[in-house]
Amino acid sequence: MIDVRRLRYFVAVAEEQHFSRAAERLGISQPPLSEHISALERELGVALFQRTTRSVSLTEDGLNLLPHARRILRDIDRCGEVIRDARWERMSTLRIGILHAHAYTFLPRLLAAWARHRPDVRLTLREHATQDQTTVLLAGDVDLAFVREPVHENDLGVTRLFSEPYCIALPERWTTAKAGRISVSELQDCRMIGFPSHHASGSTRTLFRDFLIKHKVKTADFLEVRTMHAALALVAGEQGFSPVPRSQSKLGLHGVRYLPLVEPPPQLSVGLAHRSQGAGALAQEFIDFCVEHFQRPDW
């Protein structure tokens, strides 16, 4: 019986047309590779390569063997794929919608904990902008979605997971009166950069309007961009400040620093939404797991 490993070596040499390059590709040294090719030739009783000091080329027998060798190796590799595919098909799948910022704030630790809890469940993630967070659920593209509250959709139910305060993202070169904090009064006559939400009540402008009025602060103007990433890029470019959820401060960006407010700031609530007709047993288990996870002080 032909050694499958030798067939792989044969294909590598045939494709590279060079023993040294083939050996490097295979991660072995050249002498063992040459020995295996010679052994394969003895086993088949034919010469597979014409060798010179500078080149290697296939003989007619080598040319005849190459397509068969490739097909055999593809079939062997496919055996592993078939087993893996069958295993995946037996696994339950949970489709989850996430906002872009979740991927680098709370989500990695949460999903790692879930994977340890239910390693038999396959998760798929669909990223979407805040404006689209309810659309993906209503369209049936996901089973659950992490959302910024409030959600004003009769066809959706939401389980609140946590609330967190806003902090201020500002250019690194801006100075503040207090070290490590900023007062809302220091934002007087500065440009505020914000981003929209799926509903007007959740936009940065709406959330901070009453807060600024309460403290008699008037910003120079307001610039709305589509995403938090764009807002932070403008902050780095010293175009203004941007209110962001506290968990956002985990993302270090050149030219941007995050400071808590001296005054009690507005809060952002994050929930897990599902269609009102029911989340399903697996989805409900994930919701319950998330509720418990965010009750821990170190989440």
TrEMBL record:
The keyword Repeat does not apply. CDD domains: PBP2_LTTR_aromatics_like (cd08414). Keywords: DNA-binding, Transcription, Transcription regulation. Pfam families: HTH_1, LysR_substrate. InterPro entries: LysR_HTH_N, LysR_subst-bd, WH-like_DNA-bd_sf, WH_DNA-bd_sf. The keyword DNA-binding applies. Residues 2-59 form the HTH lysR-type domain. It comes from the Bacteria. Belongs to the LysR transcriptional regulatory family. This is HTH-type transcriptional regulator BenM. The gene is benM_1.
